[in-house]
Design a protein that fits this description.
Helix content is 29%, strand content 26%. It has ten helices and 19 strands. The chain binds flavin-adenine dinucleotide.
């Protein structure tokens, strides 16, 4: 028996029950992690082919490839994707303008259709190399084992000590013009950076608006040549130290300086420093690049055999599309390696 969903998508009776069994709690608990359930309630297995730590865009894409390759997968996810505060996500084909939660909810629904994939909501606390593979310890009591690990754990953006900055992050304080520049095109815009970073960002953002000011938050460390090029493009440099961002619900109104003066604007670009969201890969011996990303090869395998990494934790090319592409690559590569070894 088949149930028809929408016009074209036909789902089997079993799939229909599975989907609706999961859809009901989704209404009761409007949390994007409905699929990530405590294993004591779900009787999760303990042994898997692959454990994926991080179940956002990259981890879910890896899980789909592995699930479709009939591999037994556990996704462990703490539910803190880096873009969770942004109202709308852009530049991901077919999902342009959707909320981050809408995109991940569809992804989770689709991954949950593969019955070899299981979900665990919570933090992976530790990882260990064992004789036959790896172990992941979650919530201090439970330990899962697998032949392979995939880390899709993302990064954590450091927030500068400016009052109001973190509240505006992803709403009007932006990391990337390709994700959010179109929405604030031709608006009064700031760049919060100094030196080479500020110069490079200014050259880029000048494509989206001509009302651009660099805020160095202290003495500018730009070269004379950079300053005169910026001047030629009518890009001002303000060195006043910043006290706070005055905003309403994350939408910035003006920058407040320590001397009491203010500067009105609609958007600010900021390149923050970051740290890895999980230190487990490094503790397992995976090498990091000088910039702090996990080193991977063309198949997303780290410097430790059997451990893969994908998404924001390996690259500065930070978009949902890229995270999904790398996750797909990691899932395909990891499963293919296992398939070939087991033949
Ligand atoms: C504010 C902001 C706005 C953005 N807007 C856009 C946009 O409009 N368009 C676009 O294409 N891109 C956008 N991006 C970039 C995009 O969000 C990222 O590239 C993407 O989220 C990366 O996906 P990921 O799966 O690698 O990591 P994340 O989405 O960050 O997910 C990592 C997951 O791993 C989990 N995790 C980490 N450590 C552990 C652990 N030890 N145990 C269990 N779980 C763990 C986290 O809880 C999280 O759920 C934005 C980024 C930011 C910061």
């Amino acid at each position: 028996m088949e149930f028809t969903k929408g016009r074209k998508n036909k789902v089997s009776r079993l799939d229909f029950i599975k989907l609706n069994g999961l859809a009901v709690p989704a209404f009761i608990f409007p949390n994007n992690l409905t699929y990530f359930t405590n294993h004591k309630k779900m009787n999760l297995d303990k042994k898997f082919d692959t454990i994926i730590v991080g179940g956002s865009y990259s981890g879910l894409a890896a899980a789909m490839s592995l699930g479709r390759a009939l591999k037994k997968v556990l996704i462990v996810d703490g539910g803190k994707p880096c873009n969770r505060q942004t109202p709308h996500s852009h530049n991901f084909l077919t999902q342009d303008g959707k909320t981050p939660t809408e995109i991940s909810t569809i992804a989770k629904q689709q991954v949950a259709m593969y019955d070899t994939v299981q979900f665990f909501k919570g933090q992976a606390l530790q990882g260990r190399k064992t004789e036959n593979g790896f172990e992941i310890e979650v919530n201090s009591v439970d330990i899962f084992s697998a032949n392979q690990l995939i880390f899709a754990t993302g990064i954590i953006d450091d927030m500068p000590a400016i009052k109001g900055f973190s509240e505006c992050w992803g709403i009007s304080v932006l990391h990337c013009p390709y994700c959010h520049g179109y929405e604030v095109r031709n608006q009064k815009t700031g760049i919060l950076a100094n030196g080479e970073n500020a110069y490079e960002l200014a050259k880029l953002i000048a494509n989206w608006t001509k009302y651009l000011t660099i805020f160095t938050n202290g003495i500018a460390s730009l070269t004379g040549e950079q300053k005169s090029k910026l001047e030629k493009h009518q890009i001002n440099i303000i060195e006043n130290e910043i006290k706070s961002l005055n905003h309403q619900n994350g939408f910035v109104k003006n920058i407040v300086f320590k001397d009491g003066t203010t500067h009105d604007l609609k958007a600010i670009y900021s390149r923050n420093s970051f740290k890895q969201h999980s230190n487990i890969p490094a503790l397992l011996g995976c090498e990091l690049t000088n910039e702090g990303y996990i080193k991977v090869d063309a198949f997303q395998e780290t410097t430790i055999e059997g451990i893969y990494a994908c998404g924001d934790n390996v690259t500065k090319l930070r978009t949902v599309a890229n995270a999904v592409a790398m996750g797909t690559n990691a899932g395909m590569s990891a499963s293919k390696k296992m398939i070939m070894q087991q033949f």
